[in-house]
Amino acid sequence: MKLYNFFRSGTSHRLRIALNLKGIDYEYVPVDLRTEEHLGAAFKAVNPQALVPALVEGDLTLIQSPAIIEWLEERYPTPALLPANAEDRARVRALAAIVGCDIHPINNRRVLEYLRKTLGCDEAAVLAWCDTWITAGFDALEALLAADTSRGPFCFGNAPTLADVYLIPQVESARRFNVDLTPYPNIVAIDRACGELDAFRRAAPAVQPDAPKA
Ligand SMILES: N[C@@H](CCC(=O)N[C@@H](CS)C(=O)NCC(=O)O)C(=O)O
Fold this sequence. Notes:
Residues 1-80 form the GST N-terminal domain. Residues 85-213 form the GST C-terminal domain. GO terms for molecular function: glutathione transferase activity; maleylacetoacetate isomerase activity. This is Maleylpyruvate isomerase. Helix content is 52%, strand content 7%. By secondary structure, the chain is α+β, with helices and mostly antiparallel strands. It has 2 domains: 2-79, Glutaredoxin, CATH 3.40.30; 86-200, Glutathione S-transferase Yfyf (Class Pi), Chain A, domain 2. The protein has a 4-stranded mixed beta sheet, with helices on one face. Strand 3 (54-57) and strand 4 (60-63) form a beta hairpin. Helix 1 (10-21) runs antiparallel to helix 7 and helix 4 (86-103) packs antiparallel against helix 6 (123-147). It is globular. 34% of the residues are buried. Glutathione binds at residues 9-11, 33, 38, 51-52, 64-66, 108-110.
C-alpha cells in the first residue's frame, strides 16, 4: 500500500494512526503542501480533489480519510476501531465527526489561504479564526467525554477507537495554532494516554520522513 500524505496534515495523521493500530505496513509517499505539490498534475492524477491523504493498493485508489478508514475497518477488522453495538458505534462516530466534519474542514490550509489572500486577513485574524472553531468543537468534546463515567483512558471504552484516531491529530493542530488546552483536561489526558502507544508515536508528524529535521 502507498500512502500519499504530508507529515503535518491532520487527515494524513489519522490514516497513519489507523494503519499502525491495525499493524498494516505501507509505503510513505510525501506530498509537500508547503510547495503546493498537491495542486500539480502528478498528484491530481492520483486524487483529482487535490487533497491528501490518498491510499493506493495496486489498481485501487482510495481518497477521503473517513472512507479510507471505514474501508480499512472492513478489510482488516482486527483490532476493531468501532465498538460492537450500534449505539456505541454511533457515539464513537459522533465524537469523530465533531473533528472530521465540524473542526478540521474549516481550518484546512486552503480555507486559511482564502482568509489570507482573498479576504486579506492578517495572521492574528487567522489564528483567531482557528481558535474559535477548535474551541467550539473541543468544548463539546470535553463535555461529552466528562459525562461518560464508564470511559477508560481513551475516548470510548478501554482501547483506542475511531474517535481517538480523529482527536489526536486535532490536538496536535490545536497546539500548532496556540489554542489554550487548559479548559480540556479530559482531552489532554486522552492525548497523553495515546502518546504512550507505539501506533500513535510512530504516526506523529515530527517523526515522519518529510518533517523538518530537529
Ligand atoms: N475530507 C478530506 C479532507 C482532506 C484534507 O483537507 N486534506 C488537507 C490536509 S489535512 C489537504 O490536503 N489540504 C490541501 C489544501 O488545503 O490545499 C479527508 O478527510 O480526507
